[in-house]
């Protein structure tokens, strides 16, 4: 018995030594760290992550697209601090606007700022995981804090349907009468994985396993119960499509009111399934029904919003240059080129009159800064 | 079940080993062997339970045929014994032909005769080529009196032994059965277990990090739209990526198989010996998929006459052997061409050797190191060209890729290399074309290719590494270091399994054959 205890002891000692060696190795590598969410949720998601805290980003086991940096005073990814009441152009969105996987200078907001000739005149308010309901909540906080003169809202697939999903630490919509009410589900207690990570001194090895490899012990057991083979995409029920259209209507009604802006000063950019543009067989099944998306576009135009369906723009650009707009094939988020296309559209929409004949929201830059 | 999957690493392997060593520890050898056979059948059936019946049918047929052949041989009835052998081999080949080649024949018939015979919906049972060839070898060995098998369970274990069942190595009955029969196999041996873990870890690393790491650069070239014109850099990039992916994938699998068997105190034959270091094509085939080469030599080339019937016949035998070797890999004309190309390479090499012996028998090269390097490079290039047919989805696709490699669509460098090239060239790069390369991964792909080529050409292979490690482990006086190394190996396997899980367990390429 004693002999076996000794053997197990030596096995554990060997394993511990190997883990320590790996920890040292990963300390030197760009392991993804993500952003530490702000403790105070009273102004979340405006104050998003811990202000002035370091972050590191990389994706997959190969640690691709590695980026390091520090958040600004509002916990957003920007090379400068935001100033209350400064009347900027705000860019609202999720991880696309957050743009952890790109240099901050390549983001939509930075490229738009350069086009407008105002290096610190565009504030990126991108919060990973936000949906349409979250953009509206964020818009209201941005109005109180910055009094923006224009806004760009980046809408991606899932923003309509996910607005109805209740999840911890997020805004969502609750049906109320004919419409919706905005609700907030407070974040729960810290996840056990986070507590373990903190307790092991913010281990780089642990972060690599959790963030880069997306590993969890549960996955080992899931292997014994593989999901049933994917069935052909089910048709979205009519009631669900109607619900998504209602979310779109609610967003279009609430965004101007909560942002304190006329619709012509709100540019809506709708992302598209870019992988499907590169190759038809790579197209993915949309989360939001195409009819609900079309409804959003048509209603937004009818209400005087500045709208760009980026699908057509991406298709035309791809046909012309054959350059990809994202980190294909590992990451669907926009790259510098994708952000540049979006910035170009935002600039065009905000400095030109809309289809309803309304005047432009912003004056074109007198001297165009370097175009990307 | 894949060797690199969670279910294998965390459930199947520990349970199988624990029960095996528990039964062995009590001296229940037959039960331990039976357990291994049962576990191996479960391992096979995990993919598709219905094909366990096919596998068992094949085992029963061949075991019975082996008994029959042996009895006839013992009774001195050679003709009958030969007839039984031919019948049994024919039955094996018919089953293989149905599952693997039926649609190929129908497709070819339709193309040649203009018929419209519908293709059958047949799923290729995994590992069928391997377990069929293993058993054909057993039948032939029985016929010539090399082996005798009396027990059904040992025979079942020989065929189904999970380390080799799906993708080899192709085994000889004579090299396995004595190992299953000896007492020392049925005991936990720390040294063997540790060496087995080492082989398994190296194999897992080759598969998960090296082969799967370079794999994303293969598809864009081999699955490019027919209308897309591959430029020289794209075509070479994709083909070199595949050349390296295939080697690290298959040699990784073989290392894992060797390691898994070693944990059970069983030695499997090596399947790779740094094949891309080969200085000629004959040497390549002595280093690549060595157990298949051995099978083709012993059971096809030599029975055809080998080199005993004159030069012409020898070349014909070489071509025939390689053509059939190509067809063994897959039912398609691209595999036939791949085999034919290698046959041709071998014939050319034989002719070259004969010419050298005749015209310059005592020639000493002036720069032997340079000569060796050139030989390695030339052999490698020949192999790379042949891999195009091996991987291409159609003949047209293969020819398009070869066009690209030959520079018929021009040489275009990635757009993002322009500044670096310009600075290297002193600012003028008008003579070089830059553009968007849809099928190339730029600097990252180049780095992967350079690193993996360096490993393939310059580093010692798995057996060299593990033989040195084994010597060192054997020299340790205290066993505690071996136990500690087991902990290190456990962490390494855990990390590699997690990396593998992050991109989903990918199949081994040779599972398709």
Element pattern of chain A in H and E: HEEEHHEHEEEHHHHEHHEHEEH
Biggest beta sheet attributes of chain B? 2 strands, parallel
Number of helical stretches of at least 4 residues of chain A: 12
Architecture of the largest domain in chain A, CATH level 2? 3-Layer(aba) Sandwich
Q: Tell me the CATH superfamily of the largest domain in chain A.
A: SGNH hydrolase
Number of domains of chain A: 2
What does this structure look like?
The complex is a heterodimer of chains A (372) and B (513). Chain A folds into two domains: 1-29; 31-367, SGNH hydrolase (Rossmann fold), CATH 3.40.50.1110. Chain A contains twelve helices and eleven strands. Chain A has helices spanning 2-27, 95-98, 108-116, 132-146, 192-199, 204-212, 217-222, 238-259, 274-278, 290-302, 310-321, 336-351; strands at 54-59, 64-70, 89-93, 122-126, 150-155, 170-176, 179-185, 266-270, 306-309, 326-327, 331-334. A five-stranded parallel sheet of chain A has the order 4-3-5-8-9, with helices on both faces. Chain A starts with a helix and ends in a 21-residue tail after the last helix. The radius of gyration of chain B is 25 Å and the shape is globular. The chains are: A alpha/beta (372), B mainly alpha (513). At the A-B interface, helix 1 of A face helix 1 and helix 21 of B.
């Amino acid at each position: 018995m004693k002999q076996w205890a000794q053997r197990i002891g030596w096995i554990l000692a060997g394993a511990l030594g190997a883990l320590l060696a790996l920890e040292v190795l990963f300390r030197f590598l760009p392991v993804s760290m993500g952003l530490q969410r702000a403790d105070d949720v009273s102004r979340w998601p405006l104050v998003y992550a811990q202000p002035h805290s370091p972050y590191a980003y990389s994706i997959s086991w190969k640690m691709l697209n590695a980026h390091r940096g520090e958040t600004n005073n509002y916990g957003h990814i920007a090379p400068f601090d935001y100033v209350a009441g400064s009347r900027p152009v705000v860019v609202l969105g999720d991880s696309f606007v957050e743009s952890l996987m790109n240099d901050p200078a390549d983001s939509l907001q930075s490229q738009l700022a350069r086009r407008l000739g105002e290096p610190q005149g565009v504030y990126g308010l991108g919060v990973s995981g936000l949906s349409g309901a979250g953009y509206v909540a964020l818009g209201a906080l941005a109005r109180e804090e910055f009094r923006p003169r224009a806004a760009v809202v980046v809408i991606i697939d899932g923003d309509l349907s996910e607005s109805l999903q209740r999840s911890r630490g997020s805004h969502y919509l609750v049906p109320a009468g004919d419409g919706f009410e905005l609700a907030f589900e407070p974040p729960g207690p810290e996840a056990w994985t986070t507590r373990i990570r903190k307790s092991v001194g913010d281990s780089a090895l642990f972060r690599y396993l959790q963030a880069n490899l997306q590993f969890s012990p549960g996955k080992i057991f899931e292997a014994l119960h593989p999901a049933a083979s994917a069935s052909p995409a089910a048709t979205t029920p009519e009631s669900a499509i109607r619900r998504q259209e209602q979310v779109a209507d609610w967003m279009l009604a609430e965004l101007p009111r909560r942002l304190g802006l006329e619709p012509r000063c709100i540019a809506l950019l709708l992302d598209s399934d870019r992988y499907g543009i590169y190759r038809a067989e790579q197209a993915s099944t949309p989360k939001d029904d195409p009819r609900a998306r079309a409804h959003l576009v048509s209603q937004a135009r009818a209400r005087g919003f500045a709208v760009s369906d980026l699908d057509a723009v991406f298709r035309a650009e791809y046909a012309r240059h054959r350059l990809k707009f994202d980190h294909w094939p590992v990451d669907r988020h926009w790259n510098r080129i994708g952000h540049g296309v979006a910035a170009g559209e935002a600039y065009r929409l905000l400095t030109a009159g809309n289809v309803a004949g309304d005047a432009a929201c912003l004056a074109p830059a007198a001297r165009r800064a370097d175009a990307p | 079940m894949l060797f690199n999957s969670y279910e294998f690493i965390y459930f199947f392997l520990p349970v199988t080993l624990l029960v095996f060593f528990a039964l062995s520890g009590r001296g229940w050898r037959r039960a331990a062997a039976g357990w291994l056979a049962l576990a191996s059948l479960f391992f096979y059936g995990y993919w598709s339970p219905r094909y366990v019946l096919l596998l068992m049918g094949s085992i029963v047929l061949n075991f019975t045929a082996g008994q029959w052949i042996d009895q006839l041989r013992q009774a001195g009835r050679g003709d009958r014994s030969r007839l039984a052998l031919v019948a049994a081999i024919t039955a094996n080949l018919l089953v293989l032909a149905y599952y693997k080649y039926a649609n190929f024949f129908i497709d070819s018939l339709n193309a040649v005769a203009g018929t419209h015979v519908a293709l059958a919906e047949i799923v290729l049972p995994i590992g069928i080529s391997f377990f069929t060839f293993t058993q054909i070898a057993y039948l032939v060995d029985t016929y010539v009196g090399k082996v005798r098998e009396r027990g059904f369970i040992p025979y079942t274990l020989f065929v189904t032994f999970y380390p080799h069942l799906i993708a080899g190595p192709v085994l000889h009955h004579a090299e396995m059965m004595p190992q299953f029969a000896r007492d020392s196999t049925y005991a936990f041996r720390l040294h063997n277990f540790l060496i087995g873990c080492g082989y398994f870890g190296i194999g897992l690393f080759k598969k998960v990090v090296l082969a799967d790491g370079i794999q994303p650069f293969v598809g864009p070239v081999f699955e490019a739209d027919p209308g897309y014109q591959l430029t020289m850099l794209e075509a070479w990039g994709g083909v070199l990526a595949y050349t390296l992916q295939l080697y690290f994938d298959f040699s990784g699998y073989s290392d894992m198989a060797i390691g898994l068997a070693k944990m059970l105190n069983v030695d499997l034959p090596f399947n790779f010996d740094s094949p891309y270091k080969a200085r000629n094509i004959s040497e390549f085939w002595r280093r690549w998929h060595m157990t298949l080469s051995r099978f083709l030599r012993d059971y096809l080339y030599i029975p055809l006459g080998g080199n005993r019937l004159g030069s012409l016949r020898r070349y014909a035998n070489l071509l025939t052997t390689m053509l059939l070797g190509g067809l063994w890999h897959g039912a398609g004309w691209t595999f036939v061409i791949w085999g034919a190309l290698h046959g041709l390479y071998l014939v050319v090499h034989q002719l070259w050797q004969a010419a050298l012996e005749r015209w310059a028998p005592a020639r000493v090269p002036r720069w032997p190191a340079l000569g060796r390097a050139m030989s390695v490079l030339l052999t490698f290039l020949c192999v790379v060209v042949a891999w195009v047919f091996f991987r291409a989805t159609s003949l047209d696709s293969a020819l398009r890729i070869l066009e690209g490699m030959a520079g018929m669509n021009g040489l275009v460098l990635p757009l993002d290399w322009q500044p670096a090239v310009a600075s290297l060239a002193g600012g003028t790069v008008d003579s070089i074309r830059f553009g968007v390369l849809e099928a190339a991964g730029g600097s990252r792909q180049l780095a992967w290719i350079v690193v993996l080529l360096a490993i393939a050409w310059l580093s010692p292979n798995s057996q060299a590494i593990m033989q040195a490690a084994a010597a060192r482990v054997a020299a340790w006086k205290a066993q505690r270091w071996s136990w500690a190394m087991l902990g290190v190996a456990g962490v390494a396997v855990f990390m590699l399994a997690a990396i593998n899980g992050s991109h989903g367990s990918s199949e081994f390429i040779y599972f398709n054959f």
